[in-house]
Write a structure and sequence with these properties.
With about 350 residues, this protein is of the alpha/beta class. It folds into two domains: about 5-30 and about 265-360, Aspartate Aminotransferase, domain 1 (Alpha-Beta Complex); about 40-260, Aspartate Aminotransferase, domain 2, CATH 3.40.640.10. Helix content is about 40%, strand content about 15%. It contains 13 helices and 13 strands. The strands form three sheets. It has a seven-stranded mixed beta sheet with strand order 2-8-7-6-5-3-4, sandwiched between helices. The radius of gyration is 20 Å and the shape is globular. The two termini are about 25 Å apart.
């Protein structure tokens, strides 16, 4: 494992600064998939009034933000649980359902297997097929759902960017009901797609064994505040809520999240920027004749030429003040694979310039 992925995640500026002696503020961070626009202005207004959210206990049942999220997603407040990041919601799912066996499709977000191990669940793995754009065979997913108690599927998946079709999602949900297996659709990056979807959220009441996990941290650029939520059948959400400790989500995060529910123009600007800059970065790597693996969302999975290692590229870029995600430790990927977030044109140009210099040295 790379020295900068020692804790299994990107965006670890503290570790990067300790390794390279660069202050945290100086990094250009392509290793964490955060909205390059930064937080919306409406949320910044909340931060200016921070004192009133700090002096009092937060609402222990998150009523205002749940109502705002319910209106935004066209669900009822009772079908929502808000957490200290999507990671808390995922941990609460494990606490509520205590699966003996957890199914995952590799490569996937490291938190899935870490949580399964933490809560004593046996991990059952299917490996996505590279020749199919890192999609698993449908029958493999069917068997995964049939032979486990809980299955977690990234949609879009991290780090591959894989997005399932509506028909595939419908099949997963139908199998979940037939087998009474909980299926968690991790939709943390779904909002970044040019047209949000596909999603089964509008049909959630047909599928009480399906949960939808969303992150506000990434799309609204508030990783330091931490905010996420899960949606699904009211009875299942009630079981999950019983596991949550009081005040796990702080008052400032709740207020900021509520403000982020009313920023439609910001959301559209984000999608346009991500689509434009993703195509720009993809075009550069294709010109360089480096492979850009299939996927969507606000990041790209790139494969280096034969004989080159992503860990070496990561170190060379770090020496230039740029962080990328070395993906060599992901099961199902190779030592040539790395992930970059889509950033602003200025930042993307700096990345391109540095990679061009390194490629010429090679």
């Amino acid at each position: 494992m790379s020295r900068m992925e020692k804790y299994g995640h990107g965006g670890d500026l503290v570790t990067a600064s300790a390794v390279f002696g660069v202050s945290e503020e100086q990094w250009i961070d392509f290793s964490a998939n955060i909205n390059p626009l930064g937080p919306p202005e409406e949320m910044k207004t909340v931060l200016k009034e921070a004192e009133k959210y700090i002096l009092h206990y937060p609402d222990p049942v998150h009523r205002k933000i749940r109502q705002a999220l319910a209106e935004k997603n066209q669900v009822s407040p009772e079908e929502i649980i808000v957490g200290n990041g999507a990671a808390e919601c995922m941990a609460l799912v494990f606490q509520a359902f205590r699966p003996h066996k957890t199914g995952v499709v590799q490569p996937c977000f490291v938190e899935y297997t870490q949580l399964a191990t933490l809560y004593g669940s046996e991990i059952v793995t299917v490996y996505a097929r590279e020749e199919q754009g890192f999609k698993p065979e449908l029958e493999e997913v069917h068997q995964l759902i049939k032979n486990t108690d809980l299955v977690i599927l990234g949609h879009p998946n991290n780090p591959t960017g894989l997005v399932y079709t509506y028909e595939e999602l419908s099949a997963f949900a139908q199998w979940a009901e037939e087998e009474e297996t909980m299926v968690v659709l991790d939709e943390a990056f779904l909002d970044f797609l040019p047209e949000v979807g596909p999603t089964l959220l509008g049909e959630r009441r047909k599928y009480p064994h399906v949960l939808f996990l969303r992150s506000m941290t990434k799309f609204f650029a508030i990783p330091g505040l931490r905010l996420g939520y899960a949606m699904g059948d009211e009875r299942q959400i009630a079981l999950i809520k019983k596991m949550q400790i009081p005040w796990s989500v702080n008052g400032l995060a709740l207020a900021a999240g509520e403000a982020c529910c009313h920023v439609a123009a910001y959301e559209e600007e984000t999608r346009q920027l991500v689509t434009r800059e993703r195509d720009f970065l993809r075009g550069f790597f294709l010109e360089l004749e480096w492979e850009v693996l299939p996927g969507q969302a606000n990041y790209l999975l790139v494969r280096l030429p034969q004989g080159k290692r992503s860990g070496d590229l990561q170190l060379q870029l770090a020496n230039r003040g740029i962080l990328i995600r070395d993906c060599s430790m992901y099961p199902g990927l190779t030592e040539r694979d790395f992930r970059i977030a889509v950033r602003s044109r200025e930042e993307n140009n700096k990345l391109i310039q540095s990679i061009q210099e390194i490629a010429e040295e090679w």
